[in-house]
Amino acid sequence: MSKKSSLNDPRGLYPTPPFPDQPQPAPGLARKMNPTPDHGEQSYRGSGKLTGRKALITGGDSGIGRAAAIAFAREGADVAIAYLPDEEADAEEVIRLVEEEGRKAIGLPGDIKEESWCRALVERAVSELGGLDILLVNAGRQQYREKIEELSTDDFDKTMKTNLYALHWIAQAAVPHMPVGSSVITTASIQAYQPSPILLDYATTKAGIVAYTKALAKQLIERGIRANVVAPGPVWTALQPSGGQPDEKVKNFGKDSDFGRPGQPVELAPVFVLLASQEASFINGEVYGVTGGKGVA
Ligand code: NAD
Ligand code: MG
Known about the structure:
The chain is of the alpha/beta class and 297 residues long. 34% of the residues lie in helices and 12% in strands. The chain has a single domain (46-236, 265-290), classed as 3-Layer(aba) Sandwich (Rossmann fold), CATH 3.40.50.720.
């Protein structure tokens, strides 16, 4: 019986810190994490909410994007995932899981810091899926720097390119392909509202993602397309032990949430499914917080 099939205290549903020390190089692999993140592999159950839909998810190999990929497939969608070539091992697991649902899975390895790749990956997704009606722009770069002097121009540039420019390039390439009723979703962060001192560049991009998506939502509704933001709090993903946070913070990750633990990627999946589906037909330009109680204000 799944943990979710009976009523449980949400604080105790998933692992609590302290966690083992586990630094890994960026971009980090979900398969190397201890404890293993829950992306819904065993637990997520679909109910046909996205039957016949065609989704592109950036950063769909691991973490929050993987949870969305599994959920979208179990809800009946075909899924293309974009990721870095170093993440092929994680991506192959997702492709297998999507195919096990009888859905089409497309792998798109490449670096979204390159405009030409952003445009090419959208074209490949559209041609291999036979269309596109869900766009989840979720890939992100987070590398902490303790002091302003340590945040180099190169760092700043990479974070802006990955988190903001790629959003624009991918959305710009995708929107002309998206029919009436489609949904665009972006992944921001609680960092847009409560920025950490060690994440100057990252927090700036996350605030930018919120503003960009709200503005885009007002444009796209004129075409019958909705756009919304999900703003997660601490979630147990490879982003954190691969330079996203100091090792000490990773050990105690999520301890200061109201739940005394980080969220697991699967705990965000229902929000992505809702926003992607027609059930969200009056939801546009909104920010959905899944922060563990910190709020998005
Ligand atoms: P993750 O590391 O599993 O996913 C991030 C993905 O971004 C990577 O898997 C990678 O495929 C992709 N990516 C990064 N740089 C790329 C590049 N140059 N080219 C192509 N792909 C690239 O971590 P996650 O936590 O699931 O992150 C997903 C989103 O959630 C990110 O936007 C992140 O900022 C956001 N977020 C995470 C947390 C958290 O605590 N984990 C909190 C708030 C927001
Ligand atoms: Mg990854």
